Amino acid sequence: MIYKLLINLPRLLTLSILLSFPGLVHAQHPPVFEGMKMDTLFVDMYSLPLKVVKYSYGKPNVNFLVIHDNEDTGVKAAFEYIRFSGGSVFDSQYGDLRNYNINYQGLQYQIDPNKIYSSYGVMEGLEFYGAVNDEVSASLNTAAEMILNFYNPGKPDYIFTLHNNTDGAFGINSYLKGHELELVADSLHINFNMDPDDLILVTDLKLFNALKKEDVNVVLQSRDAADDGSLSLYAMQNKIPYINVEVQHGHQLQNLQLIEIAVKALKTTYPELF
Ligand SMILES: [Zn+2]
Predict the structure, then answer these.
(1) I want to staple 247 with a disulfide (CB 3.0 to 4.6 A). Which of 20, 101, 153, 251 is the partner?
(2) Ligand 1 centroid from CA 256, angstroms
(3) Using one digit for the tens of pLDDT, what is the confidence trace for 4-51?
(4) Distance between Cα 159 and ligand 1 center (Å)
(5) Coil, strand or helix at 138
(6) Could you give the CA distance from residue 35 to residue 45 in angstroms, rounded to a whole number?
């Protein structure tokens, strides 16, 4: 099924631009396996050819959401998960990059897609890279609504995201006292046998306690964390159970293991959602 096909028509105009950057049209997405179903949401914003592809397999189960297009270890691990257990993976695709890049009326705009879930976040997120524009901001907020509505029409029951990071740059240690994310976490549980780059972030105490019992690296986001337009802040403010499984690029096995542990925690904590 194709959603919002009309919005996609301006795409024809952007095709020639895309073709001049071969890297942008050869995204490294894992191979689709037999029996998998695909639905696509097109959210073209000006020059940005954004689409969210829903890959489903087997009986309905957990829905995973990937918002950064250059983080494919999570997608591969989630494909493995749904191949055996059923479910869906919602994968954002816009040229294998981290940020959205938009050309509008001759100006370039750039934003991290994990900044679009509040008006303030969009403003701050655009400003971080340069130009800010009201129409571009409004489109980004609309894109956020469309993505969430495609992920789960109405208010989502839960949000289960997958992210990947690079070795040593960000990890569970970033939340320790004296480190850059100290104020973002209310509680931490660290398993010192795990790679510190592999962790789970949640926004409510019940999920935190369930994951702590499993003895994995887990962060409980602070109730006082500032509005940065991120999906975790959005989920916390709207009281939607939120899980982010984040592992180092390439840690596919650890990614799958953490997904399995997080799914178990989500189902035992919120059985009414399944
Ligand atoms: Zn990410």
Answers:
(1) 251
(2) 16
(3) 333 333 333 333 333 333 334 444 577 788 999 999 999 988 999 999
(4) 14
(5) helix
(6) 31
